[in-house]
Amino acid sequence: MANRAPAADSLASESDPQRVGETLRTIRELRGVTPLRMAQALGISRSYVYNLESGRKPLTYVLLARAAAFLDVPQISIMRPESAAPDGAEQ
């Protein structure tokens, strides 16, 4: 599967890629998922997962949808974790 991430398909302009990557890593780790398992589930390489999590590669809409489904979280929880406060509490 190709690992290209065209700018038109990227969420980079909508949020900070490094923060999004850190959030993705945190959720992955909380779920007990290894980078290799995440890569397999998303159809990308393990190094691409590391690049996403470090903010060096943009998270595309397709990868966001796949990651959210795999990690069983709403997409907004990855993009804007402050919007998804626990127990419905506002932050």
TrEMBL record:
Location of the HTH cro/C1-type domain: 24-78
Region (Disordered): 1-21
Name by which UniProt lists this protein: Helix-turn-helix domain-containing protein
SUPFAM superfamilies xref list: lambda repressor-like DNA-binding domains
Database matches in Gene3D superfamilies: lambda repressor-like DNA-binding domains
InterPro entries assigned: Cro/C1-type_HTH, Lambda_DNA-bd_dom_sf
